[in-house]
Amino acid sequence: MNYPLRTIQEDGDAAHCSVIILDQTRLPRETAFVRLNTLADAAHAIRVMQVRGAPLIGATAAYGVALGLAEDIPLETVVATLAATRPTAINLRWALDRMTRVLQKSALVSVANERRELAWQEARAIAQEDAAANAAIGRHGVEILKPIAAQKGRVEVMTHCNAGWLATVAHGTALAPIYAAQAAGLVVHVWVSETRPRNQGLLTAWELDQAGVPHTFMVDNAAGLLMMQGRVDCVIVGADRIAANGDTANKVGTYLKALAARAHGVPFYVAAPISTIDFACPDGAHIPIEERAAEEVGVGSMAFANPAFDVTPANLIAGIITERGIVPADQLARVKP
Fold first, then answer.
1. What strands, in cross-sheet order, belong to the sheet with 155-159?
2. CATH for 66
3. Residue 37 sits in the same domain as residue 155
4. Are residues 228 and 158 in the same domain?
5. Based on the domain organization, do 158 and 305 belong to the same domain?
6. Residue 2 lies in a domain
7. Which of 91, 106, 129 corresponds to the end of one domain?
8. Are residues 103 and 199 located together in one domain of the fold?
9. Strands in the chain per DSSP E
10. Mapping DSSP to helix (H, G, I), strand (E, B) and coil, where does residue 112 land?
11. Which of the two ends of the chain, N or C, has the fewest CB atoms closer than 10 A to its terminal CB?
């Protein structure tokens, strides 16, 4: 698939580095790009969701480390600043840990110019690996859709939030199998959940429209009815963190779709790179759930709840689609690095 835009791209080199991101807070109304020149710019972009989606957050954080070192900010301060931006997406912490390990192990860490170049190279590697992993997710995930298409002549897929190429460096996670199916000539239709309160389903609808994939935008609470009516063949969603036991955090509303899918015999899959699996987190009860501001739901002084994520138990998940293949949710040790 040819992507019309890049979510993140380098500009310059380690000596004069900057990063250009697609400002997703302005989609789908307008297409605009933002240049990140400093650590503060990168932290702001993650915090206010100019970049969003666990894999893209991780890549942006990696580049944020390179930007911070270019300002001669101590590595510990850089990492702490970026780590504080959003609590749920484990790819953020994963990318920061990887950057720290590489920089601290290198003999060049005490030489400023070489350290900056090393940080830039490692951030680039993280971005390139994300694109490759997501392409592999698409190749594995399409194997779920092929038998359905062979039997019915078409496939009806439901998704939630946005886990397409906008949420990654390329290809997407939950949408990668759909794009692979389109490339393979399968007839695919996607039910796109609006995903309140940030309406990120609009980003999925925008993506699918750009790619020419037939889709229907639906209100969140229509999901159960559609499954009851037999209009959904499978559900594929992304993830912001997967616990070691297979419990999965994704945008709030995912859990309700998993319950409805179980009630109506619809297989429910999670698509995510292995970097999204937090093997140090034993189960979903230990996943931190981000609370967003009242302003995002238009609430004034009244009491409100605005959790950004919920947790789907592993026993509701038919499989985790990773770059190494489709794994039962309770057998993630098989893909542990």
1. 215-218, 188-193, 155-159, 234-237, 268-271, 319-322, 325-327
2. 1.20.120.420
3. no
4. yes
5. yes
6. no
7. 129
8. no
9. 8-11, 18-22, 33-36, 155-159, 188-193, 215-218, 234-237, 241-243, 248-251, 268-271, 277-278, 309-312, 319-322, 325-327
10. helix
11. C
Distance CA 123, CA 115 (A): 12
* DSSP letter assigned to residue 108: G
Q: Which of 233, 240, 247, 310 is catalytic?
A: 240
Pair (57, 185) in one structural domain = no
13 is annotated as an active-site residue: no
Tell me how far apart the alpha carbons of residues 247 and 289 are, in angstroms, rounded to a whole number: 13
Residue 10's Cα: distance from chain center in Å?
20
User: Which residue(s) pair with 155 in the sheet?
Assistant: 188
In degrees and rounded to multiples of 5, residue 8 shows phi and psi of -155, 140
In terms of residue numbers, what domain contains 111? 8-129
Q: How far apart are CA 232 and CA 174, in angstroms?
A: 15
Condensed to tens digits (0 to 9), the pLDDT of residues 241-252 reads: 999 999 999 999
Contacts of 325 (CB under 8 A, 6+ apart): 140, 335
Pair 117, 161 in one domain: no
Taken in order 270, 271, 273, 276, the sign of the CA dihedral is negative
Total domain count, the chain: 2
Please check whether residue 328 lies inside any domain of the structure: yes
Say how far apart CA 334 and CA 311 lie, in whole Å: 22
Shared-domain flag, residues 109 and 158 = no
pLDDT tens digits along 74-118: 999 999 999 999 988 899 999 999 999 999 887 655 667 888 889
User: Is residue 298 included in any domain, yes or no?
Assistant: yes
Least confident of 9-13, 16-20, 70-74: 9-13
Q: Would you say the pTM of this structure is higher than 0.85?
A: yes
For the stretch 250-302, pLDDT in tens is 999 999 999 999 999 999 999 999 999 999 999 999 999 988 888 777 767 78
